[in-house]
Please model this.
Amino acid sequence: MAEKIDVEKVLSDPDFAKYPDWIKTHLRTYLESGGEEGHLWPSGIKQGEGPTHIPTLLLTTVGRKSGKQRILPLLYGKVGADHIIIGSMGGAPKHPQWFLNLQANPDAEIQVGTDHYKVRARIAEGEEREKIWSHMLTIFPVYGDYQKKTERRIPVVVLEKQA
Model:
């Protein structure tokens, strides 16, 4: 198990203020509740009578340039024991910073609800990627729209738990 996140340290970091308001709200909620709240987050996608809540985790990486701890809430899926995250950045032309951080150092930590884990990231390729991508589209169909918006191939990242 990974160590619990120092909430005050994260929320008092000047870099926290740079996040968009919705990310700050989500991150604050997740951290301050210890994961009791924020794990299932309203996606804004209407299905039936109300919004669909999607599973989110907190990913902690080390900044490849700064060397500082970076933490961000991300949607996830599961395949077996592995957690899956998608480097979509809303279909932007560049990869998200967290993905570049994982490329530089694949060792990271995640918080899933109230549980904390050390993980190692790897990029899914080939048939594995296609199967996981299809699975992730069932969780968050908007990923398909994001892929259409960008020329880059959106990465599918597998987070494998470490001892």
